[in-house]
Write a structure and sequence with these properties.
The chain is mainly β. The chain contains two helices and 15 strands. The radius of gyration is 23 Å and the shape is elongated.
C-alpha cells in the first residue's frame, strides 16, 4: 500500500466513532427484547362442577421481555418472561373472579436469515405456568394448579442497524390447570393461549 493511502486510512480510522468501527465486529451472542404482549386464551376453556358450569378466561395485555443466547448464527435459546398477568374468570357468562398467571417460556429458535434486514424465525419449547392471587367474588377459596406444556413460536425481526431491531411474534402455549374450590377438585380448565407480542430488541 502506498504511504499516502496508508496515512489516509489511518487518519480516517482515528476520526470514526467507536460504534462505526465496531460494525464489522462479530456480534455478541446475547440479545435482549422488551415489548407488549396480548394473551388471548382459547374461546372455550372447559366446564367445571360436573360440566354444569362453563368457564371463560379473559384476554390480557402487559409488558414482557425475553433474553436470547445465540449458539450459532442460526440457532438461539430464548427465555420469555414478564410480570404476572391478571385474567378475569367468567362462569356461565357472568364474572366469577380473577387470577394472575406467570407463563415463562423457554424455546429453541431457528433464525432463517440472521444477517438480513428481515429476519424470520421459528421456535419450539416448554411453558411453565404458575397461578397466584386466585379470587372468587363470592368469597369461596379458589386454587389453580401449576401447569407444564409445550409451546410454539413464529416471529419476524426487522434490523434497524447491527444492534437494534423491532419485531413481531406469536406464540402458542398449552396450559391446563386443575381447579379447586374450598379444597374440592371441581375440574380442569384449558387456557391454551395465543400470545401476540410487539418488541424492540438490542443485540449486544
Amino acid at each position: 500500500m502506498p504511504k499516502q493511502s496508508f496515512f489516509l486510512v489511518t487518519l480516517l480510522s482515528s476520526l470514526l466513532p467507536p460504534s462505526v468501527m465496531a460494525d464489522s465486529a462479530t456480534p455478541s451472542p446475547w440479545q435482549l427484547r422488551g415489548g407488549i404482549s396480548l394473551i388471548v386464551p382459547k374461546s372455550d376453556n372447559g366446564a367445571i362442577l360436573d360440566h354444569t358450569a362453563d368457564v371463560t378466561v379473559g384476554n390480557r395485555a402487559g409488558p414482557t421481555f425475553n433474553i436470547s443466547y445465540f449458539i450459532s448464527p442460526h440457532w438461539a435459546i430464548d427465555l420469555l418472561g414478564g410480570l404476572a398477568f391478571k385474567h378475569q374468570i367468567d362462569v356461565n357468562g357472568v364474572r366469577a373472579g380473577e387470577a394472575k398467571q406467570l407463563p415463562p417460556i423457554l424455546s429453541l429458535q431457528y433464525h432463517f436469515w440472521p444477517e438480513a434486514t428481515f429476519r424470520p424465525y421459528i421456535g419450539v419449547g416448554l411453558n411453565y405456568t404458575a397461578f397466584v392471587d386466585e379470587k372468587l367474588d363470592d368469597g369461596a377459596k379458589l386454587k389453580l394448579g401449576d401447569s407444564w406444556g409445550p409451546a410454539l413460536q413464529a416471529g419476524l425481526d426487522y434490523a434497524l442497524d447491527q444492534h437494534w431491531t423491532i419485531g413481531l411474534d406469536i406464540r402458542y402455549a398449552r396450559i391446563n390447570t386443575k381447579a379447586r374450590i374450598n379444597g374440592t377438585d371441581v375440574g380442569d380448565v384449558d387456557i391454551n393461549p395465543a400470545v401476540y407480542t410487539f418488541n424492540v430488541g438490542y443485540r449486544f
